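Input record, target 12 of the design panel.
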């Protein structure tokens, strides 16, 4: 696997918010098929790292390459093409609250559709079978015609996962995708993310090391914006985790 071209390559990456250095001197290579968990205390830089990977943020130092391309050097059109290959789940889920669930799930396909087809779909939804199947897989088959604003936080989180299933990306970048879920549903969602048929590669930030060990192949630990742990998930010891989460 390490012989294949990496899906992600970060070289000496840093990110500053004004005078605050959120990430420093990160080198990271992720190959197709890896399921990488990013762990670390609150404020360690996990969301910042994931935002660099899905192209919503540019590094202030070093270079980020995803599928061999540096998003910061691409035209807007090429960057959109690259972003279609990446499925993102954010902490806020990025759903449209006032529409029915099926439209939010169908939005996973918008990048593949013409504007006319996307607009027509708001009135006459296309591909309902695929949307229904995705909702079934996250346990929300009953919610197809519900208004999104009526769902609970955990249900919304699963709608965002269903949208990802419909998008069928090659790389999934998920920022705390199970934060509002009960333990059984959290495990189910991580199973789904790890086995998306098209997406060999997953980068997921988590607050529960046990989920990382169970559902991921590799664990990267961030502390004050630097990588202090990078090991196969099966080899991450409790002592290493205690170190990672120790109060500074
Ligand atoms: N837009 C911003 N402006 C200024 N500082 C920011 C901004 N976003 C993040 N930071 C700071 O950068 C650091 C890293 O933040 P980040 O959100 O990446 O951490 P995190 O590990 O994801 O935390 P959490 O687990 O609480 O979500 C923190 O100190 C945070 O306060």
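The sequence produced for target 12 reads:
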């Amino acid at each position: 696997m390490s012989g294949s071209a990496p899906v992600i390559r970060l070289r000496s990456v840093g990110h500053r918010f004004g005078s605050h250095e959120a990430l420093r001197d990160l080198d990271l290579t992720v190959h197709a098929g890896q399921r990488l968990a990013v762990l670390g205390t609150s404020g360690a830089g996990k969301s910042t790292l994931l935002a660099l990977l899905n192209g919503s943020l540019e590094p202030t130092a070093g270079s980020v390459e995803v599928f061999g391309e540096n998003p910061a050097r691409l035209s807007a059109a090429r960057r959109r093409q690259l972003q279609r290959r990446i499925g993102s789940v954010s902490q806020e889920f990025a759903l449209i609250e006032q529409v029915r669930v099926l439209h939010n799930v169908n939005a996973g396909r918008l990048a593949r559709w013409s504007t006319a087809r996307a607009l027509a779909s708001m009135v006459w939804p296309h591909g309902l079978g695929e949307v229904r199947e995705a909702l079934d897989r996250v346990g929300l088959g009953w919610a197809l015609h519900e208004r999104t604003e009526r769902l609970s936080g955990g249900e919304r989180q699963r709608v965002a996962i269903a949208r990802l299933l419909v998008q069928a990306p090659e790389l999934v970048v998920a920022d705390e995708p199970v934060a509002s879920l009960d333990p059984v549903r959290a495990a189910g969602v991580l199973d789904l993310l790890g086995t998306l048929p098209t997406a060999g590669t997953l980068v997921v930030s988590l607050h529960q090391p046990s989920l990382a060990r169970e559902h991921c192949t590799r664990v990267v630990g961030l502390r004050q914006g630097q990588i202090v742990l990078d090991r196969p998930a099966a080899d991450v010891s409790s002592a290493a985790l205690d170190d990672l989460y120790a109060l500074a």
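The chain has one domain: 6-245.
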